[in-house]
Amino acid sequence: MSTIVNDIEVIKANHTKIHDIDFNNLKFGHVFSDHMLECDYKDGKWHTPKVVPYAPISLDPSAKIFHYGQSIFEGMKAYKDEDDNILLFRPLDNFKRLNISAKRLAIPELPEAFFMDGLKTLLKVDSDWIPKKEGSSLYIRPFIFATGKGFHASPADEYKFIISTAPSGAYFAGKVKVLIEEKYSRSANGGVGFAKAGGNYAGQFYPTQLAVKKGYQQVIWTDDNTHEYIEEAGAMNIFVRINDTLITGPTSDRILDGITRKSIIELAKTEGIPVEVRKITVSEVVEAAKNGTLKEMFGAGTAAVISPIAGFGYKNEDFDLPELENTFASSLKKRITDIQTNKAEDPFGWRYKV
Amino acid sequence: MSTIVNDIEVIKANHTKIHDIDFNNLKFGHVFSDHMLECDYKDGKWHTPKVVPYAPISLDPSAKIFHYGQSIFEGMKAYKDEDDNILLFRPLDNFKRLNISAKRLAIPELPEAFFMDGLKTLLKVDSDWIPKKEGSSLYIRPFIFATGKGFHASPADEYKFIISTAPSGAYFAGKVKVLIEEKYSRSANGGVGFAKAGGNYAGQFYPTQLAVKKGYQQVIWTDDNTHEYIEEAGAMNIFVRINDTLITGPTSDRILDGITRKSIIELAKTEGIPVEVRKITVSEVVEAAKNGTLKEMFGAGTAAVISPIAGFGYKNEDFDLPELENTFASSLKKRITDIQTNKAEDPFGWRYKV
């Protein structure tokens, strides 16, 4: 069945999978909604997207995604409030960052209307898939990859943009122990670390496996030259609280301009929390852990919102963080999720009603 | 039709495309032979490969290749000599490097027999696709990518290994002008630069496009920290000849251990050419260009074998290399291709008869 919503053609799935899903026991990104948005770049332009049934993609074995890693993505969430309004959080920022990533990966930039109208149409079609349970959300995955053919190491001439959605529970459960990395790194100066490029993530898996074998759950990435500057926490931005000051590293060509990161910075400032955006050294964090001024560390990203860190390892020594009653992590996470889910006023204009 | 060759099942294509191909006008990697080798990793192991008709691959939209760049590849060539023997060049080195890449990208390592027997079976089935024209070859592309599903940023639980082949002409035509990079970089210390990971290539496209706009064809990559050390030439290793000494950078976690590169080093030594494997600085290359001691620069890799450089740009200044009658590039290229194609003795044991 084909209909038109927001000028976008919708081809409905013949049957829904929604009754097979236990919405009370959702993992992260493991089950997928009935439909997806699909949009092709060929003959030098992006063509109008369609909402189509979620279904396998067929690609030539020479498609450049398989060979040269030309892929980018975004992560977003949709919520439903008590009145069943569909809510997004700063979606235009995801759109803009997708195109920043696209440019760096030599992928043609996407028109805003294709992204925004496509996303809104998809969410309306699959609105029953948006969980209402506290902590759950509809995780949204926009991504672009190279479908053009050929073994020549050059940008593809064809691409596919897809938005797929997955009703999801929380990304992490509980506090994590992290290892400050002394050997491996995730990005280079002048590289693609600031982009949400697929290859940035594949390169993290092996060092993370090594950390897991040592008893940690995540790696704290440091700069590739000196390993003296703290850059990211796993696939998240990182915040460190020393005494009552919240510190995060500046964005750069190595560090992702996280939307949760910048929201936390703004929120903290309005709460009167002193915030410093500056380079953080491993030495100062270790020193602060030793003298008791290191109060909190946490990762920040769309999937987990805020992921508190229980302790860290560095040079074969383990450091535990204190168990505080009232943490910046929990109060800031509550403020952000309350804004996201329309349980609180939004003085920033971040909430976006579909 | 299904048969067994070398214990590997062969499912033949219903018809051949070979009569549609103009073997006198082959580009690089644009047309593909009738069959491919396909091998799946699931339930914790690699399963016996099959030769199957070259055909599209169907993947779930959540397959991790689309999102997290978990992919690696190799590049090889097959030749036919005058007696129609099928010849490879140091294929075990490609197999070993594939597994080195696999490990770094958290991809399960592949058994040697699946690679070697699979490759030999495929080449026998499609032996008519191996061009005999001088300079042409059957380009071989082994690659592995993540097929496992899910949006969680973690290694996939399923993978596909494919070998596809493409009858090909020369990769580059003529000498190239290159730009020594001062801002962008292709790899980090502790990163994946030494691996043939897809993401390493996608990151090169945009800086290369910028260089092309300035009138160059390729980028000379420098280290990401100081941009003072010369590391690679496009997707190739780089050699510099100063006076009569051939210099190439040492392999590292940023530089690919190229099979052509190490073959050139060995060959040059047997020819009595002084070879230095050491860091090369941009300053010494510029200085040598200015004082006339810079005789040659060339890239080395499987696709092009040796790709001579005509000149380079650096800090808005252009430097031309001399037009020599007898170059190391041409004599070494001839020696390698003569060994590859069985036109010369092979004292090294590099040639491999299928």
Distance from N terminus to C terminus of chain A (CA atoms, Å) equals 23 Å
CATH architecture of the largest domain in chain A: 2-Layer Sandwich
Describe the largest sheet of chain A.
Answer: 11 strands, mixed
Per DSSP, what share of the residues of chain A sits in E-state strands of 2 or more residues?
Answer: 25-35%
Order of SSEs of chain A: EEEEEEHEEEHHEEEHEEEEHEEHEEEHE
CATH class membership of the largest domain in chain A: Alpha Beta
According to CATH, what is the topology of the largest domain in chain A?
Answer: D-amino Acid Aminotransferase, Chain A, domain 1
What gyration radius of chain A follows from the Cα positions, in whole Å?
Answer: 21 Å
Average pLDDT rating of chain A: 95
Shape of chain A: globular
Whole-number total of structural domains of chain A: 2
- Specify the structural class of chain A: alpha+beta
Number of strands of chain A: 22
Q: Given the structure, what is the number of helices of chain A?
A: 7
